[in-house]
Each structure stands twice: as structure tokens, then as C-alpha cells.
Specification:
By secondary structure, the protein is an alpha/beta fold. It is built from ten helices and ten strands. The protein has a single domain, classed as P-loop containing nucleotide triphosphate hydrolases (Rossmann fold, 3-Layer(aba) Sandwich), CATH 3.40.50.300. A ten-stranded mixed beta sheet has the order 5-4-1-2-10-9-3-8-7-6, sandwiched between helices.
């Protein structure tokens, strides 16, 4: 898989000691599916000794983790621990952040994601992003979804089928099929977020990143998004940042816990533990993880 620029296509960006009892964090009642052996997991991202600095100040360091295909990986931890910073590393969004620099190794399907030969626009086509607050374009529902495929060279005659397919996969088609010419901004908050998911997957990405996608939604809309994530992981790799531990326990296959520590008078984020979700929530290997999920800090 190559991420170098394809000069025949117009590619543009489209918008990882204490023994108190562990509380119930909403894990499903049924038995968890068998864990996939490590050697059988197809790795999408491999992060080694990752560090991110803003204007010379380290925001997060010492991050080593592997993210596999067709899994939902959740990043949890207190505010300021580097969760979103690491998420944005995965599709090179720090390229457009003034003063931001990424150090260490970030490999995507074995390829150096930060190589000078890699086209960042192609990276963002393959690795889509859904943001915390729904952000539909001030366009029709149809044009919101068709925008990415259109600027990536798809024929006009193909767009209706692409739009219907994306909206169907985002569990929104039945609700909007008779009002595709209406503004995307006319939808409810939960519908707008599903529209943004449809827009992201319309360009057929490999990975979908979600930065607290349910934080601004009501419980019913949140449940719809969580159900949708479970369906989408059959086709896509999903990485989600969430402050909701119950959500991480419900939807993710693996969870990474980050925390923030004071280092030379600066607050620095670090990855503490990364494991199968059920194990991390029921038998964490680090006392800091246990302290966070039991509510002693955070």
C-alpha cells in the first residue's frame, strides 16, 4: 500500500499495587468473543517511542502501541493526557498545527507515515476523521456526502449510488432519503453526526478516527452511534477517544489508558497501559489504571 501522491488523481483531504474492587463499567452481560491471537492480528498502525511537542513543550511521550484492522480501539484518560494528540498523529493533522512536531516512529501498514515521500492529503483520504462536535458543511445532505467522492474524481453519474450507500452504512438513509436537498444543518445533532460519518466513509477510507463523537449527543443518539460503530468495524478500523469509560467498555476491543504527569514543571501525557478492553477494566496491570477506573482520580 502506497501513500505517495498519485499524479493521475485529484486527491484532497476529507473532512492510538492498589487492590480496590473494580466498579461495573457497563461491560456486556454475554461472554466476550474469543481474543484474537496476537500473531493473527493484521496491524494497521505501529507506534514506537512516539512523542509530540507543541512549540518545544512536550505534550505526550513514550507511546508504544499497535492498532489492528477491524477492531475498535479506545483511548481513555483524564483531560490533558494526550489522547486527542495521539489520535491526530494517526492522520497527520499536526501538519497543520503551528509549532507541532512529531517524533518517534509511526508506521501505517508497515510504511513510515511521516516520510517526506508520503502525500498527507492521501493519508487523510485513507484515514478519515469524525470530530467531537458535528460539523456538516453548509450544503445539502446530498452534497455533504458527495463532496469527497466528487473532488476525488468520481463521475457525476456515480454520486447518487455512492451517497445512498454511505448514508445506508451510516444508518441514516431511511431518515433522509426523501429530503436529500435539505440542508445538512437542518438535521438533529445525532443525525448530523451520522451525516459526518457518512461523509467520512463515502471516500472508502481504511480507518475512521473519532474524537469524542458522542460527547454532545443525548443518550438515544449516543446508542445509535455506538451500534453504528459495531457495524462499521466489519469494514473499517476504528479508533475512538472518549471520556466515557462505560462507552469504552461497551464498544471497544482494546483500550489504551493515558495519564498526565508533571515532568520538570510541565504536564506531560504518557501511555500507561494498553490491553484487551475486558482485561484492562477487570484486571488492570498498573495501579494507575486501577485508580482511574475506580474513580480515585481523573
Amino acid at each position: 500500500m502506497t501513500l505517495t501522491r498519485d499524479t493521475t488523481a485529484n486527491v484532497a483531504p476529507v473532512t492510538t499495587g492498589v487492590h480496590a474492587p473494580i466498579p461495573d463499567v457497563g461491560a456486556p452481560d454475554e461472554a466476550a468473543p474469543p481474543e484474537v491471537p496476537e500473531e493473527a492480528r493484521q496491524l494497521v498502525f505501529e507506534l514506537r517511542d512516539l512523542e509530540v511537542r507543541y512549540s518545544g513543550h512536550t505534550a505526550v511521550r513514550e507511546v508504544d502501541l499497535d492498532i489492528a484492522a477491524n477492531e475498535i480501539t479506545a483511548f481513555i484518560g483524564p483531560s490533558g493526557c494526550g489522547k486527542t494528540t495521539v489520535l491526530r498523529v494517526l492522520n497527520r493533522m499536526h501538519d497543520i498545527t503551528p509549532g507541532a512536531k512529531v517524533f518517534g516512529s509511526v508506521r501505517y501498514h508497515g510504511e513510515d507515515l511521516y516520510s517526506s515521500k508520503v502525500d498527507s492529503a492521501e493519508v487523510r483520504r485513507r484515514i478519515g476523521m469524525v470530530f467531537q462536535k458535528p460539523n456538516p458543511f453548509p450544503k445539502t445532505i446530498f452534497d455533504n456526502v458527495a463532496y469527497g467522492p466528487k473532488i476525488n474524481g468520481r463521475k457525476r453519474s456515480e454520486l447518487p449510488g455512492i451517497v445512498e450507500h454511505a448514508l445506508t452504512r451510516a444508518a441514516l438513509w431511511d431518515e433522509v432519503k426523501d429530503k436529500l436537498k435539505n440542508s445538512g444543518l437542518s438535521l438533529s445533532g445525532g443525525q448530523q453526526q451520522r451525516l459526518c460519518i457518512a461523509r467520512a466513509i463515502a471516500v472508502e477510507p481504511d480507518v475512521v478516527l473519532m474524537d469524542e463523537p458522542c460527547s454532545a449527543l443525548d443518550p438515544i443518539a449516543t446508542a445509535r452511534i455506538e451500534d453504528l460503530m459495531e457495524e462499521l468495524k466489519e469494514e473499517f478500523t476504528i479508533v475512538i477517544v472518549t471520556h466515557n469509560m462505560q462507552q469504552a467498555a461497551r464498544v471497544s476491543d482494546r483500550t489504551a489508558f493515558f495519564t498526565a504527569e508533571v515532568d520538570d514543571e510541565n504536564r506531560v501525557g504518557r501511555l500507561v497501559e494498553f490491553d484487551v478492553t475486558e482485561k484492562l477494566f477487570t484486571a488492570p496491570s498498573d495501579a494507575r489504571t486501577e485508580g482511574y477506573i475506580t474513580g480515585r482520580f481523573g
